[in-house]
Structures are given as structure tokens and as C-alpha cells.
Fold each of these.
Amino acid sequence: MLLRNALIACFYCLVTLTACFREPNYSVVPEIAFQNIVVSPSRFPQTDSIAIFITYKDGDGDLGLGDQDINPPFNITNPDGTPNRFYYNYLINVFKKERGRFVPVVFSDPSVTLNGRFPRLNNLPTRTAIEGSLRYGFNFFYAFADAYRPRVMRGDTVRFEIQLADRQLNLSNIVQTDEIVIGQVR
């Protein structure tokens, strides 16, 4: 009898606690915040392995792309053959410090990008608010200094700007990373 009463009391406590939980009221436009950037040695010569950590909040949970997300508006190229920005959902720009100011770094080949795709973060059949953190890693090849304008070489200071796109093509705020020095692993 005592065990039965204890189980009933636990059940009511659980029901009461879960009934008090309210889903966060986040905007359907994703919101991100920079957490950290980590640079480590790469297995490739003249290359830094970079990991960027951000946090996210999204009111309808439509962050991330699945393998099925390859048709418009997520196809690789636009009808005119130019790269489609929304094929990717993790958008990243590089800035190089020159004479105390950061200037955009552009790839010589427009098809080359540091942008990437991350998987769907909410696999529930309903829209729901989500929050969490993302780690995005990539190799930064400074061996190919001519691939960038302006050139980026060992010893140069760079930073990155990050933005996320959701499946409704809402763009998050833009966050900046801390500065790093290329070729000098911390």
C-alpha cells in the first residue's frame, strides 16, 4: 500500500511539473550567438583546422536541411547557372585585417565557398521551438594564397562572419568570431 501511494504521488508530481513547462516564445527568424573559435593543426600542410561554435534559437524549429532538400529553393545553382546561396544553410564570410581594418576576402573562383549544410535539428512532425549549439568545422588552406583576394597567408589575422538560413529562407542575425592568426595554432 505504501509503495502504491508513493507511485501515485510521483505520478502526480510528474504531471504537475510537465504541465508547468511552457514552450519558449522565440521568433521564427533564427537567432544566433558566437561562442568560440578553435584552431588546431590539420593533417594537410599549410592548412589550419578551424571549428566555430555558435548557439541558436528558432521559434518554429525549421533549422537544418535533409538529404531530400535539393530541389528549389535548395538546389545547387540558380536558373542562370550561378551558385545558389540557399543550397547552404550555414553561411560564412572571411575578413582579413589590413592596416587595422577588416576587409572582405573573396574567393577567386566563385564556386568555391566555406559555406556548408547542417542536418535538420527538429525531426518532429510538428513545428516547435528549439535551441542548442552548433559546431562547424572546416579546413582553411593558406597554401593557396592566390585563391583569395586579398591574399591570405601564414601570419595574417582573419575573422569570420556567420549567418544561418532556415527552410523558410529566413536569415538569422550575423555574428562575428574572434580574430585568429593564420598558421599559428593556439
Amino acid sequence: MIAPRPVPTAVEWLRVNLAIGTLSFGAASRIVLYEDAVVRDRGWMDPDEFGEVITVAQLLPGPNLVNLSAYLGYRLVGPGAAVLGVLCLCIPGAVLAVALSGVLAVERPWVQAPMRGMAVAGIVLLLLFLWRRLAGLASTADPEVPARTRVRVVRGVLLVSVAAAILWGASIYAVLGVALPVALVLEFAL
């Protein structure tokens, strides 16, 4: 017999958002933290459901991270707690950024060194996020039929190319402006 999936309370959901909003920065790192909190640690969703939520969040207009928090909250605890969850996600970082911008001189080496360390941590979390998405390279509309090897290889090359371009400092808009049309053509041509 399969145990019932735990259902979060509004307070639990707000705590997750507050912790993620307070202790992290950058969209990719937060997506990994949400996945850990919602799927791995608490079992509120399975990995496939979380992947679906990420897809919907990316399709909605607006910042993906806010969309992710809002849609997760909506599915898990309802619309009221979803709105409060977004506030718990956004307010700590905004307050911290405003407070630190008036105090820290970013041109000083003692400020730049921790920032570089955080940038490295952000890159590691981005790579972790991409690693966890690799299983999707073999997916098709029919879960029983895996994608052909040629399709998986092309998807993998495109994913690695996008990640490399972003890590080397290319504009995200330029990368997506090239990658999205290429992905669509390849997806339907193969």
C-alpha cells in the first residue's frame, strides 16, 4: 500500500519561501532549493509534477522564479498562501539589497571576494539544476516511448551549448534568441 503524500500547511509553505528568499540569490540556485524542499525533503510533489510546474512557470509572463513560487503555492496550498509565499520569497532579498547597497562599497576587495565566492556557488547550483534536467532529454509525449538516440544527443548538445554560452557571459537574450528557434527546428525535423 502506498502511503498518502504529505500535504503542506500554509505556514509550512511560507517558511519554505522565507528560508529560500533569505538564504539564497539567483534564479537557478532557488529552483534547485525549491526542488529539494518540495520534492526531495518533504515529498509534496514527485519529480515529474515538479518538472511540469517548472514548464508552466517558464511559459507564464513575468519572472520565472516568482511564477514558480506562485504556481507551486497555488497547487500546494491555494491562491492566498501562494501570494503570501511570493512575498516571503521576494521581501528578504529586497530588504537586504537595499540595506547593503547603502553600507557596502562594492569596489573594495573585501566586498568583491565574497561576491566572487557567491558567483561560483551560483554556477555550481546552475550546473546542478541542468544535471537534474538531463532525464528530460529522453522524454517524448508518450511516456512509454523514449526519444531516439539522435534526438537525445541533439538535445544534450543544445543544452550544453546554452549553458556554456551563459557561463561565458553571453547575453541571455542573445542565447535564447538563437537557441529557441534552433531547438524548435531540430525538435520537429528529427
